[in-house]
Amino acid sequence: MTSTPPARPRRSLSLAQREALWAYVFLAIPIAFYAFIRFWPALQSFYLSLYTWHVDPARRRFVGLGYYRELLENPVFHQALKNTLQYAVITVPASMALGLGIALMLQAVGRGRGAYRAIYFAPYITPAVAVAWVWGWMYNYNYGIINTLLIEWYVFLERFGLERLAIEPQRFLTDPNLALVSVSVVVVWQQLGFQVVIFLAGLQGIPRIYYEAARIDGATPWDLFWHVTLPLLNPVIVFSVVITTINALQLFDQIVNINFTDQGGPLNRTLSIALYMYQEAFGRARLGYAAAVTVVLFAIILIVTLIQLRLTQRRVEY
Amino acid sequence: MIASERTVVRGLRAAEEAPRRRRVDAWVVLSYALLTVGALAMVFPFAWMLLSSFKPYREILSFSILPERFTLANYVEVVTGTAFPQWFLNSVIVAVGTTTSVLFFCALVGYVLATLKFPFKNLIFILILSTLMVPTEMLVIPWFVMSAEYGWVNTYWGLMFPGLIPGFGVFLMRQFFQTLPRDLFDAGRIDGVSEFGLFWRIGLPLVGPGLAALGIFAFIGNWNAYLWPLIVGQRPEMRTIPVGISNFSGEAATQWNLIMSASSLAIVPVLIVFLIFQKQIIEGVVLTGVKG
Q: Which chain A residue has the Cα nearest residue B145?
């Protein structure tokens, strides 16, 4: 592209019109992209959720809100919904608290801060698929390193007659009461670095003068944390909660791969909404029903985002 | 509240007067200790993966930390016994292709939204931002229907098209272009620089850090992507690394030594990229907070 405009500007075209024309020339491909790859498919999800699926559009049968009614009754969907909310309720506070704690400690140390930050952050960018397999191996009941260490720990304690303090080897991924927590640990391990980086940047943005002034007024470190750090960190915390929550609501890669032979198991106790959608759509070819599932997921994410907007607008004045 | 003017002044004065005490803070010592324990927990899974990947099958089931008989046979088996080179090539093509598009189009749209005046500008920006609220899960079914209809299944285009112009990239680049003075472009216009030249030759070179952050994120995001490639890349020769690794590991069943070398092949290149671009990546996270 050189200096020749698409339609040679007529003399009557003002500078402002010329600028607008160019803007739309540049935006032509992106607008087409957003229309056909983002907006149209999003609308089509609503549409598809009202019909039974068939490759030939003429043979799709209108079911109206039938699939949504099925969602209200389907126990597997209820389980997936419950699990997904549990993932959020476990991983969000855990990674926030750990992330904030680590960021505070990183701020306290001088030397080595960059190196520690890099180490905590590294898991965040590694492929979740491979990470899930690595953790699946560590969690393995018979040969996994965690159970091996638990046995070694038992042997060690036995020498002192303290067996009571030992923990038995666990079926991390096959015990229905433990599987969801085990997966959550992996998610926290991988997400933590994100929180650390965001919180550390937030902490470094708080002017030191506030701390010094408060300290002179006799504030204890505890007061400083509750009355200076936390309130000033509020926007960062809200932002981080929303991103982490949305990620938790969309969990898929880890769940598929950590328990590959029984995806979402045991007894659907690790099944997430995203995995349920995938199984229904691509395992059972119920694309209409799966589309209804994604509409519900969209609604949940929308609510979370709107709550965030409300919270960030309520700015605290200092 | 706390920082009333008087206390600030008092604080400043006190800070000047008091000689800087360099006591060995208990909190600092405790921090180092806890941070080190935590760092070990972060590194351990990677270390264990690598150690396991060098062990022969017999050894993987008997507990030993270091491989007694160090072997590269697992890697040889994964690379030669599967289509791994093809998956790697596919991942490179998809990640490079997508990233190129992301860089060009997100920068272009960001530039247009930040510096040009035209009708419906805010509406267009808000519509682009609103796409960030739509989860990928909601789009994959229509994308698949679309791909089946147009013959995009099992093609590179099929793997790439959803991610060509992500909204967060547009948002990021707009932020960067907004920091540039408008006069800069007006001056260029007077000097007879074409409209595209204003973007390409004047604007783009000034947003290097933004492009770096966006490029790295787009690359890593596409390299790690799983859900959509799993759906659209169904033929074995069209798999990307995450899809290929996942399938291979599922078939390898209990041969954890093979699974761990396959996982290493997926993870280690990303870790190397991270070590090289650590600063830009972390700054990029701070800037956007969004994963590619």
A: A55
